[in-house]
Amino acid sequence: MFAALKPGDAVGVLAPSNKIDSVWLERSLDEIKRAGYVPFVHPHTYNQYGRFAGDDAQRLAALHETYTNADVKAIICARGGYGALRIVDGIDFALLKKNPKPMIGFSDATGLLNPIAARTGQPALLGPMLNDFHKDPMRSPESWEHLWKLLRGDEVQPTDHPAAKQAEVMAAGEAAGKLVGGNMAVLQACFDTPTQPDYRDTILVLEEVGEDLYRFDRMMWQFARAGVFRSVRGVIMGELVDVADVGEPAFGQTAKQIVAEHLVPLDVPVIWNFPCGHGIHRTVLPLGVVANLSASENGITLQHAPLFA
User: Fold this and answer.
1) What span, in angstroms and rounded, lies between the C-alpha atoms of 200 and 73?
2) Residues 279, 239: contact at Cβ < 8 Å?
3) Residue 49 in contact with residue 58, Cβ under 8 Å?
4) Is 36 helix (H, G, I), strand (E, B) or coil?
5) Measured in Å, how far apart are the chain's first and last C-alpha atoms?
6) What distance in Å separates the CA atoms of residue 6 and residue 89, rounded to the nearest whole number?
7) What is d(CA 110, CA 187) in angstroms, rounded to the nearest whole number?
8) Average of pLDDT values for 48-77?
9) What pLDDT, in 10s, does the model give residues 280-296?
10) Fewest CB atoms within 10 Å of the CB: 36, 68, 166, 194?
11) Where are the beta strands (DSSP E) in 109-172?
């Protein structure tokens, strides 16, 4: 359990993947200030090295130094893109465990969040990133308010987010298990590596963006053939943004039909179009934490124990 944030606490900002535009990053810091916190932007965040926010050693050092900064009480990733898996094997997880604080992100950060949760025992939060402010206005004020409530210790659950009402029950049921997952392409890249998550008895969260339907279908088959789907207790499909036919020939199924074909026969609860990932809205899902999922004609609830005290 983490210490709840208090007004005036520092919130760290990291760019463990792609380089950033300093103009929109500065604009995003106003949201941290509006919430009553002081942004701490690690100096390496502004670096540029090819497509990355600094070379691998710089980004890894920034991660370690922000965790060991006692003034920083939470860390928000600036953006995703690509690069997290280039540094994950260098992480000093013992150092992170000695300096507990929540790290928040999605997309490419999937490659950091799952191993941080697994190897430190600390929740890692699948949630908003500052890249939201690359678009003006920002995508979802509700998502940021949901995050701030959680960080300050309010009693808030993933399905308390207003956009949770958009989700659909694809297969009804109840399940309890650790939350694990995130971006499918990143998780796929972790197969047969030291940071592949343990999917046994978990509630699996999946989301994706910008994939041709045949590539999405291939990812679903790889998860299935690897035994992932058979080992989980429930599945939460986040928003699949721009997962569609790019050209001819047409695939012949929609993304929803592909998901249903793989997951409905599993006899576990399956949720479709949950607000997490690359869509407009993002609730906060604490990876590594046991959650209880209930899906029926009466609605969807996803609840977990308090994270902050």
Assistant:
1) 31
2) yes
3) yes
4) coil
5) 7
6) 33
7) 7
8) 97
9) 999 999 999 999 999 99
10) 194
11) 124-126, 168-171
